[in-house]
Specification:
16 strands; 3-stranded antiparallel beta sheet
């Protein structure tokens, strides 16, 4: 790679603290490049092909081996089927966690295309590859489609992230978001970890449990007292608060409920 090309990568990345692997363009076929931060991902091996780049390595804070597969799917149906067969054979021969991503040039079902011809054979071949390779197709957030023509009459979901099902156990909060288009007719697709706190897990209590002899062993009375003291709700602690406002021991004696009504709107 020339100095000019390295400078272009630097301009995209923002600094020179990067490592990369590339598959150069051939004829009318565009090239591929994978870029990563060496402080976050330690490269061990690289395999390059016209349609993919595989980078083997380890992520910081993770002991498992990862294979990052950057894919540009061919247009031809037979070439696509050959690509899935090649990648499946590679994954069978190399143990580790897999993250496969890029412009795969294929959809999984008819709902992922609009205004263009859907190929059931291509979809079946792709779905079989996903199933046989134990991959999980992460749902996209932000947009339904990742490619659109200039006229806006054709749209498809061509870009996605496929990950090993084992990764969903170690990274359960993995998300994929479709970003705004800038220079390409494809939307950038971002993989990220977004841990959302929805509050305490809901708890159900069935009336029939009251007849169980061991119910007293589930929640100790001393635990209830300790939790009440921790939250300021122990017996005799008045006035308590409702919606952040002090309430007396007898709610009927509250002078004005207007403040509560405003908060409750």
């Amino acid at each position: 790679m020339t100095r000019l090309e390295l400078f272009r990568i630097k301009s995209m990345w923002g600094n020179y603290n990067f490592d990369y692997a590339c598959s150069l363009s051939r004829g009318r076929s565009g090239g591929l490049i994978s870029i990563w931060d060496p402080n976050s991902f330690s490269k061990q091996n690289i395999w390059c092909h016209d349609s993919y780049i595989i980078v083997q390595g380890k992520w910081l804070h993770y002991d498992e081996t990862y294979y990052m597969i950057n894919v540009y799917g061919p247009q031809d149906s037979e070439a696509k089927a050959m690509l899935w067969s090649t990648l499946h054979a590679f994954m069978h021969d190399h143990n580790g966690n897999y993250m496969l991503f890029g412009d795969l040039n294929v959809v999984r079902d008819e709902s992922e295309r609009y205004g263009s011809v859907f190929s059931r054979d291509e979809a079946d071949s792709f779905n079989t590859f996903i199933s046989n390779s134990n991959l999980v197709d992460l749902p996209l957030g932000g947009r339904q489609f990742t490619w659109m023509n200039k006229a806006g009459t054709k749209m498809s979901k061509l870009d996605r992230f496929l990950i090993s099902d084992s990764i969903t156990d170690s990274i359960p909060d993995a998300r994929v978001t479709v970003l705004d288009r800038l220079w390409s007719d494809h939307n950038p697709v971002m993989f990220h970890v977004n841990k959302v706190d929805y509050g305490p897990i809901s708890f159900k209590f069935f009336h029939s449990w009251l007849h169980r002899n061991d119910l007293d062993e589930v929640i100790k009375s001393e635990d209830v007292v300790a939790m009440a003291r921790r939250t300021g709700c122990e017996a005799g602690s008045l006035p308590f608060k409702y919606l952040g406002l002090p309430i007396g021991s007898n709610m009927n004696c509250t002078d004005s409920w207007s403040d509560l009504a405003i908060i409750g709107r």
